[in-house]
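Changelog-linked ticket: 4'-deoxy-4'-aminopyridoxal-5'-phosphate example.
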Amino acid sequence: ICWSEKGGWHRPRVQPYGPIPLDPAASVLHYGQEIFEGIKAYRHADGGVYTFRPDRNAARLRKSAERLALPALPTSYFIQSLRELIAVDEAWVPSGADQSLYFRPFMFAKEAFLGVRAAKKVAYYVIASPAGSYFSGGVKPVSIWLSENYTRAGKGGTGAAKTGGNYASSLLPQAEAASKGCDQVVFLDQDRNVEELGGMNVVFVFKDGRVVTPASDSILEGITRDSLLQLAEDRGLTVERRPVPLQEWRDGVASGDIVEVFACGTAAVVTPIGVLKGDGFEDVQPTGELALSLREELTDIQYGRREDKHGWLVRLDG
Ligand code: PMP
């Protein structure tokens, strides 16, 4: 579907997968004016195809759009774009444990000009790909490298938007993490508060049952995290969204106050953090039951194996 300043959203269509024509002066190539989302469709035992909280992804896409000076896409268009793809061939959605169809909705500035201003011509596309299990052979704790040399986003920057530039700036730190033998990188803000991983949010579980996650206007508000915290609240646990200093994390683990640390996002759902490594230290992280039990509850809802009490599922086929 296309957007222009004069015509608004127009020309919705489904076309065969293939290269997109792009003018060499298209502003997305020069100024990075683009945003995206990630959301899955799940096959239920009754054959139906469902997606999870698409209103949240649509709202986040609009929030990203606002920050990147792109037009707002209505929630109904967003959900319709997923439906249209499923309608072409719903057999694309695999069945089986941990199998899904991953949608990648994205919006970019295609107006051709050289000059720094918001584009007046924009395109919104969705591509999709079957996704298997994130972990082969069961969920394994990941190791995390503490990035001291780089930040992901600054105050007033684009950290809360899902835009390619944030990921571009995390590629080098991610490579640094890999060179240190770690799976993922964790970013701090300028005040040494914990932000998030390159593509996942972080959650801490305290001995007294509190579940704490960094609140900041420079991290991506994960929909997986929000859902897990809701399920934790449903179990009577206290949830805190607030700044979490790195020192609190390291001291909490050392003293035994923090009993679990995990990361979460659409791709992996939940993954325990096994080790935090940084320049000159390596903290082994405690492991517990909550992360995996919340993971099971959430995936049970997504795959229709458990009651959807919060009305999170939206049917896409039929
Ligand atoms: N933070 C970042 C930087 C991400 O890329 C993602 C993945 N979208 C998340 C957090 C988790 O968000 P969600 O649970 O909506 O997938």
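Closing comment: Example verified and attached. The domain at 2-132+309-315 is CATH 3.30.470.10 (D-amino Acid Aminotransferase; Chain A, domain 1). The mean pLDDT is 96.
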